[in-house]
Write a structure and sequence with these properties.
single chain, about 250 residues, alpha+beta, eight-stranded antiparallel beta sheet, 3 helices, elongated
Length: about 250
């Protein structure tokens, strides 16, 4: 199975205008994949920018008034209430600017969502929607699936009895661990008997035994340049878990 799988979904509602990739090709993370009609989001973005500019102008005016009232209230030329009102208006204007900036940021995020990009690098499958379709309306419509096939995960099982026998042999000194704290070298053989060029490494083994089969699940990570190994492919695995010292090879 792929080492990473990502579902590309529409996070903005609108009409799908363009597909920007070739189906079945290798893509890079961040690469544009689809373009959703961005006109409504662009209009909203410009509107909130204008609202922010208005709030900033009000803040400048309120700040200038508060600064002008400050020496006057100290000289008792105006009432303290008038100065307090000016300071409150300044604080309100500052809050309006903060709200406007948040609205601009939200509108920019929504505008960017109209351009759908690849969340990960890998191989992309067929497009699940066509140009002209309404996507993202009420739910995040799935547009495509990306699978990272280099490296590839290989899942396999081993008898719990074999694991226990191996552990006893290791503890008794009959065998030595292959490399590292876990068994390391994993060779993969395809259905026609040919061996995959790259050796993999064991990532983990399950801590529990499947009671229905008496098997322990293991996972290996295998380099897969060129995409020779495909998701869902059945293979045979040869794993080196221990070595016998002082043995004779027949």
């Amino acid at each position: 199975e792929p080492s990473r799988v990502a579902q590309v979904r529409a996070r903005a509602a609108g009409i799908l205008q363009k597909r920007l990739f070739r189906e079945g090709s290798d893509i890079q993370a961040g690469q544009p994949l689809f373009q959703i009609d961005a006109a409504p989001y662009a209009a909203t973005y410009e509107s909130v920018q204008a609202t922010l500019a208005k709030a900033q102008a009000n803040l400048s005016q309120a700040s200038a008034l508060a600064e002008r009232y400050k020496p006057l209230v100290e000289a008792n030329a105006i009432s303290k209430q008038e100065y307090a009102n000016a300071v409150a208006a300044q604080k309100q204007a500052e809050a309006d600017v903060a709200v406007g900036r948040a609205a601009v940021q939200t509108a920019k995020i929504n505008l960017d969502y109209a351009s759908v990009v690849a969340p990960i690098g890998g191989r992309i499958g067929r497009a699940l929607v066509t140009e002209g379709a309404l996507v993202g309306q009420g739910e995040a419509t799935q547009l495509a699936v990306i699978q990272q096939v280099d490296p590839m995960y290989v899942n396999f099982t081993q008898s719990a009895a074999e694991v226990l026998a191996l552990r006893r042999a290791l503890e008794g000194g009959q065998f030595k661990r292959a490399t590292g704290p876990d068994a390391a070298s994993v060779r993969v053989f395809l259905e026609d008997g040919t061996e995959h060029k790259r050796a993999g490494r064991l990532l983990f083994s399950e801590l529990s035994v499947d009671p229905s089969s008496g098997q322990i699940t293991l996972r290996a990570e295998v380099p897969n340049p060129g995409g020779v190994l495909l998701p869902g492919l059945y293979v045979r695995v040869r794993i080196e878990q221990a070595r016998a010292g002082g043995a004779i090879l027949l």
